[in-house]
Structure formats: structure tokens, C-alpha cells
Amino acid sequence: MIAERGSGTSLAILAAPHRDPTTTHREATTVTAAERRSTWAAATLVAHLVLAPLTALILAGTWHLGAAVWQLLLAAGAAALLHVGVSLAGRRPWAGYGIGALAMLVLMTMPFPGWSPGLLPSAACFPLTLWRLTAMVRTRSAVAALAVTAAGIVFTELVAWARLPAGVPGWTRLAEGGLLMLIAGGGWLAALLARRGHEARVRAERERLAAAVAGERAGIRRDLHDVIAHTVTVMVARIEAAAVTTTDPATRRELGDIGHGGTLATWTGDMVFSPAKGVAAIVLTNSVGDPALLTANLLAGRLGVPATPMSNPLTVVNAVLLGLTAGMSALLVTAAVRARRWVARRRASRRPWLVPRLLPLAVVTVLGVLLPALMGVQAGVFSFQYWIVTAWLLPLLVLFSLTCCVLGTVALARRLWCLRRAGHASTEPASA
């Protein structure tokens, strides 16, 4: 009775409609896609609430310096287009990137008194559109977008070089163009690594779900086999007993054949189970240091130009910078603390990709060392003509640059040390 009830339940489970693992995977990744959309919506909201008011304040300040009305209107319109591009990039990345590229080209090439409007805070919307495009489209399309960005940087630097005043060396344009190329390429690479990490997690989730479905079906088959085998064993025992007790030779032969067939029905082959192995990836967002006021003041003294005061009152920009510094510190400290676990997951993955995964940390460290002195030299050569930069940007980003330099070096050294220890640990048993 128990055997009949168990076999009926197992047959009912096997008769249930089959669900494709890809369908289950699609349902499981819906939350992930929603989370990615919510993250982009939050980033867009922060860009609108923080960058737009700062841009309006800076444009209002430049009006007192004698900027023409048409220049202010053109800069404000380009900044507004940058914010429109960020809003469109969530659903139409190519449209958002195209609008942002055109607006950025206008900002970088238009003449302005004493400084470039490409330094407006709203200009940060363009890297966001490039990030979104790289994270959503294919690699070939992302490479094309990076090529367009590089061509735009070359064009704007050529225009700036043609407008250089007498006495200003031309290598400054080359240095600035190289810096912009490095920033754009680093952000693009970080976005590409983030997309590949997401794809690896999706593949691992698909493999895990497929393995879970296969394991569940194998368990059902195994349980059903046990129930049927027990039932058939009892039937075989009764048939063999009847074959022994009967006196008819023909009946004995028939019962023997039936019993042998029941014995063969209880045979099963081996089942092999293999757990799914996930692929883990740690992708760090690329960030940079920025000009050091100390280097600029040192060159200012030698060039005979006034030095910028070191005072830096607490403002909204300071608060935003402190938040960014705290976030970068948390990321780099986490990368250093979890280095051993990162090495273990890298060794277990099928595609280690060691160099691309260490590159963001190396870029953070190198930029944290080089950019302060490089931009300080540029500010000294231009005799602080870009007063907006020296007034609020240069003093604020010194702490951020030092954070990237020190903590990036610690995190990178920690990962390399853990890799070396893991390599020694893997070679010792082989040599023994």
C-alpha cells in the first residue's frame, strides 16, 4: 500500500509540466535588471540635483567677470543638453551619448573669458553617458564610442592649441589631451569590466539553476526507482516461490522468465552529479586624483605670479568631495581586506583575467601619484588664468588624490602578496 502511494506521488511529480531552465533564469534575473535600472536612476538623480545647481552658480559668477550674454546662454544650453543626454541614456544609450557628445564638443570649443566651460560640473554627465553605453551595448559598439570620444578630444585640443596666447608652450595641450584620454579610457575600461562581471554572474546563475533542476529530477528518478524496485522485488519473490511450488513444467518456465524479467527491471546505471561552479569578479570603479595646490604654488613663486591661498571653507562641494573620498576609501579598504578571498575566487574561475582585474587598482594608484604634480605644472604655466579651477577645484581634490595614492597602493600590494602566497602554496604539494 505504501509502495503504491509512493509510486503514485513520484509519477505525479514526473508528469508535472517541465519548466525550461532558461525561463527560470530569466525570472531570476529580472530582479537584477530592476536593481541595475534603479542604480542608474539614482545616479541620474544625483547628477541632476548636485551638478546642475553647481553649474548654475558658476555661470552666475562668470557673469560678473564680463562674459557675454550669448556665451552664458550657449554654455547653459550645452549643460542642459548634457543632463538631457544622461536622462535618455537609461533607455536609449546611443541617443544619450550622441547628445552628450555634441554638447561636450560645444563646451570645449566655445571661447570664454579666462577659462574653458568644459570644466563646468555638468560636464561630468558625458562620462556617465559613455559608461552607460559601454555597459549596455556590444563590445564593438563600445569601442566605436571610445574612438569617437578620442577623436573629439583630439579635435578640441587642436582648437585650443590654435588659440594659445604667445609665450605659452604647446606641450601643455598635449599633456591635457593625454590626461583626458587616460581618464576616458580608464572609465571605459572600468565599465567594460563591470559589464563582463555582470555577464559572468548571469552565466553562473544560469548554470546553477540548470544544475539544481537536473539534481531535482535525478532525485525524483532515484526515489521512484527505489519505490518500484521494492515493489518489483516482492513480486519477484512471490513469482519465484510460485515457480518452486508449482508442478507444471510449462508454468514453472513461464514464472521463471517473468521473475528474471522483474530482476532486470530493478537494475539502474550510475548517476554522476557535478555542482555548478560560479565565476566571481571584482571590478573597481576607476577614479583619478587631481591637481595639488602645493605644486602649483611652488611654481607660482618661481614664475613670479600670485600664489593661491590655502584656505578652503566648508561648502556643498566640500561635502560632496568628502563623500566621494569616503566612498573611495571604503572601496579600496574592502579590496585590501578581501584580497585573500578575491585570489581564491580568481583561481577557481575558468577565465582568471588577472591583468584586467588588477589594472583599475594600478590606474588609481598611478593617477593618484602623477596627476597632482602634472596639473600643478599646468596651472603654474597658465598663471592661474583658470580662476574657477583654482578657486574651488584644486584645493578640494588634494585629499581625494592622496586617498587614491595611498589606499590604492596598499590594496594592490595586498592582492599581489596574496597571489604570491597562493602560488607558493599550490607548488609545495606538487614538489613534495
TrEMBL record:
<dbReference type="GO" id="GO:0016020">
    <property type="term" value="C:membrane"/>
</dbReference>
<feature type="transmembrane region" description="Helical">
    <location>
        <begin position="386"/>
        <end position="413"/>
    </location>
</feature>
<feature type="transmembrane region" description="Helical">
    <location>
        <begin position="174"/>
        <end position="194"/>
    </location>
</feature>
<feature type="transmembrane region" description="Helical">
    <location>
        <begin position="358"/>
        <end position="380"/>
    </location>
</feature>
<feature type="transmembrane region" description="Helical">
    <location>
        <begin position="142"/>
        <end position="162"/>
    </location>
</feature>
<keyword id="KW-0472">Membrane</keyword>
<feature type="domain" description="Signal transduction histidine kinase subgroup 3 dimerisation and phosphoacceptor">
    <location>
        <begin position="216"/>
        <end position="256"/>
    </location>
</feature>
<feature type="transmembrane region" description="Helical">
    <location>
        <begin position="118"/>
        <end position="135"/>
    </location>
</feature>
<dbReference type="InterPro" id="IPR011712">
    <property type="entry name" value="Sig_transdc_His_kin_sub3_dim/P"/>
</dbReference>
<feature type="transmembrane region" description="Helical">
    <location>
        <begin position="279"/>
        <end position="299"/>
    </location>
</feature>
<feature type="transmembrane region" description="Helical">
    <location>
        <begin position="69"/>
        <end position="89"/>
    </location>
</feature>
<protein>
    <recommendedName>
        <fullName>Signal transduction histidine kinase subgroup 3 dimerisation and phosphoacceptor domain-containing protein</fullName>
    </recommendedName>
</protein>
<feature type="transmembrane region" description="Helical">
    <location>
        <begin position="94"/>
        <end position="112"/>
    </location>
</feature>
<keyword id="KW-0812">Transmembrane</keyword>
<dbReference type="GO" id="GO:0046983">
    <property type="term" value="F:protein dimerization activity"/>
</dbReference>
<keyword id="KW-1133">Transmembrane helix</keyword>
<dbReference type="GO" id="GO:0000155">
    <property type="term" value="F:phosphorelay sensor kinase activity"/>
</dbReference>
<feature type="transmembrane region" description="Helical">
    <location>
        <begin position="40"/>
        <end position="63"/>
    </location>
</feature>
<dbReference type="Pfam" id="PF07730">
    <property type="entry name" value="HisKA_3"/>
</dbReference>
<feature type="transmembrane region" description="Helical">
    <location>
        <begin position="319"/>
        <end position="337"/>
    </location>
</feature>
